[in-house]
Amino acid sequence: MLTIGTTYRPATDLGYLLVKHPDRVHEFELPTGRATVCFPEADEARCTAALVLEVDAPDRRAAPDGFSLGRFVNDRPYAASSLMSAALNKAFRTAMAGRSKDRPELVATAIPLEIRIPVLRCRGGADLADRLFAPLGYDVAAAAIPLDEGHPEWGESPYVDLQLRGTVRLADALHHLYVLLPVLDDAKHYWVSTDEVDKLVRAGEGWLAGHPERELIVRRYLAHSRALSEPALERLAESDDLVVADSVDAVLPADADEDAPSLAVVRRAAVLRVLRESGAQRVLDLGCGPGALLADLMADRRFTEIVGVDIAPRVLAIAARRLRLDRPGAIAERDRQRIALVQSALTYRDARLGGYDAAVLMEVIEHVDESRLPALVRSVFGSARPGTVIVTTPNAEYNTRYAGLAAGAMRHTDHRFEWTRAQFADWAAAVSAANDYAVTIEGVGPADADLGAPTQLAVFTAAGGNA
After folding, report:
1. Which helix (H) or strand (E) element contains residue 55?
2. Any bridge partners for residue 341, and if so which?
3. Nearest-CA neighbor of 265 among 295, 301, 286?
4. 73 burial type by CB count under 10 A (0-12 exposed, 13-18 middle, 19+ buried)
5. Cα separation values, 277 from 326, 370, 459, Å
6. Domain for residue 258, yes or no?
7. Per the database entry, which stretches of residues form a coiled coil (predicted)?
8. Contact 158/184 with Cβ under 8 angstroms?
9. Among 102, 122, 321, which residue's Cα sits nearest to residue 208?
10. How far apart are CA 208 and CA 151, in angstroms?
């Protein structure tokens, strides 16, 4: 069961948005059973719609963990999964399309919503549910369900009772659920083909491209298929005018463990480790893009002042949505005061960027023409002169390990260059010598004995501290 409630006045307008009369029971036949929509409460102050899914026993799909008798004994009739997503699409198709003949103006209005899924299979637990729904503007309450309340020593089950509260357009909320329910379940009841990429891009329009867990969502929604995940990530980037720092970040080398974290996640963790070791509190994220690293920095209160810098206003707007800076009251005021987003070109000096403890250029320099790199060096190492500068960039030697990457090809069409380890070391040594910094270099990601690690990371430390 899934319920959607509102306290919008008049609350019964929820029926118009869902195109369902609250006084009636609405039934829908599905290939896997039957869906029923009813309204357990409906008055001016509060209205709730319930979607109840009954799965036919002969049509039960195998359990997601591959249990050998899963077709006959499984949790599909009792826990929300991709079957519920299909039921949502069938029962609320008009609402998901953002159409309402009787309340067209309300379709575009964000209204207070309360959503509950009392039994949801959640591979990753309550924490993952929060990571997926909180960036979309919801207050998330996900409680793990015990295996047996009479035997607490048995621990928790793989199910959560999920409750979401937020002021959201109903069509957006339905799309969020449609995509994220099978992602949390990490299983689908049907064969995943290239059509699923189109479904994902359509349902994720306006929110998925800037989501901090975009790679995980895409990989799980597309059943961990590399052949489908990479083009999906490319299309999402194009649909939101984003430049993906590294188009193979979410794709693993051919012999890698598919459950391993993506390179983007590993890289951010390495950068955060270096920042913590440096003792930095006031940090610049130069070329911050849609704000993945900014979100990680915000989660750690040791960073007291965080500034995200990018040249593209649209990308900064996406970062603001990800960090919930565009909604008054969405985050605590003390957190709002810790962060600022600044439009600036890194190849020009900007007095606003001076005097910080540390600056990060994560997968940025390869997007700059090599002829413009000296200007970037002057503005960052000369003018801004933070105490620590962290630079990451692809290791071109490692590219041969990526399946589907042609010989000599770069990891993204926007990359102006990709350096070998020797080339990056030479550049780093020249920059440090010319600007009175010391430098160390390390690899990030699973290293190959001959080719090195996929990412190169350099840590520059100013000899005399901040200017």
Report:
1. strand 47-55
2. 308
3. 295
4. exposed
5. 32, 30, 11
6. no
7. none
8. no
9. 321
10. 40
Residue 49 has pLDDT above 70, yes or no: yes
Residue 249 · residue 262 · CB < 8 Å? yes
- Give the residue numbers spanning the domain of 290: 263-462
Residue 434's nearest CA partner among 442, 423, 426 is 426
**Cβ atoms within 10 A of the Cβ of 181, count?**
23
Q: Which two tokens stand for residue 356?
A: 């910080």
Is 256 part of a structural domain of the chain? no
Q: How confident is the model at residue 193 (pLDDT cuts 50, 70, 90)?
A: confident
| Three-class secondary structure of residue 167 per DSSP | strand
The two structure tokens encoding residue 229: 């995940």
Who contacts 45 (Cβ-Cβ below 8 Å, separation ≥6)?
7, 9, 11
Residue 290 has pLDDT above 70, yes or no: yes
Model confidence at 348: pLDDT above 80: yes
Buried b (16+ CB within 10 A) or exposed e, 426-450: ebbeebbeebebebeeebbbbebee
| 374 and 231 assigned to the same domain | no
- Which amino acid, one-letter code, is at 431? V
Alpha-carbon span 151 to 444, nearest angstrom: 44
Beta bridge partners of 21: none
Partner residues linked to 437 by β-bridges:
462
Q: How much of the chain exceeds pLDDT 90, in percent?
A: 54
Residue 245 lies in a domain: no
Distance CA 124, CA 323 (A): 22
The CA-based diameter of the chain, rounded to the nearest angstrom, is: 77
Same-domain status, 288 and 373: yes
At residue 238, does pLDDT exceed 80?
no
Instruction: Count up the domains in the chain and report the number.
Output: 3
| Same domain? 133 vs 42 | yes
E strand or H helix at 230: helix 226-239
- DSSP, res 419: B
**According to the model, what pLDDT value does residue 69 have?**
44
- 137 contacts 169 by C-beta, under 8 angstroms: no
Give all strands of the β-sheet with 455-462 in edge-to-edge order: 339-343, 305-310, 282-286, 358-362, 388-394, 455-462, 437-444
pLDDT at 322 over 50: yes
Nearest to 40 by CA among 23, 59, 62, 57: 23
Measured distance CA(281)–CA(267) in Å, rounded: 20
Local structure of 396: helix, strand or coil: helix
Q: What element of type H or E holds 256?
A: none
Contact 44, 35 (CB under 8 A): no
Most confident of 12-26, 148-162, 192-206, 309-323: 12-26
Q: Are residues 333 and 441 in the same domain?
A: yes
Same domain, 137 and 221: no
Of 43, 305, 332, 81, nearest to 190 by C-alpha is: 81
Are 357 and 445 in a shared domain? Answer: yes
pTM for this entry: 0.53
